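Researcher: Let's do a round of design. I'm pasting the structure tokens now; please hold your answer until I've finished.
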């Protein structure tokens, strides 16, 4: 069982390391909180396209590759 605690003007819960590992959370992880059917739902923050594109640099940009001719009903 977990207990809600007051942290400043907010409320907080501690997430045990074993649960955090199961869902890929670590210190500093950004999350989204929502309420669905009366339940508090914690999800990893979904990255927006502009945030993902901002991480592209000349050093990590993949070059165009040839995948060959179209097959079947593919259109190129």
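Researcher: That's everything. Go ahead.
Model: Designed sequence:
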């Amino acid at each position: 069982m977990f207990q809600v605690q007051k942290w400043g003007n907010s409320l907080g819960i501690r997430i045990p390391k074993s649960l955090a590992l199961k869902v890929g959370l670590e210190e500093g992880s950004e999350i989204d909180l929502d309420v669905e059917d009366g339940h508090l739902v914690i999800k990893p923050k979904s990255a927006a396209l502009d945030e993902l594109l901002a991480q592209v640099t000349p050093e990590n940009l993949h070059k165009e590759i040839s995948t060959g001719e179209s097959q079947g009903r593919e259109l190129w």
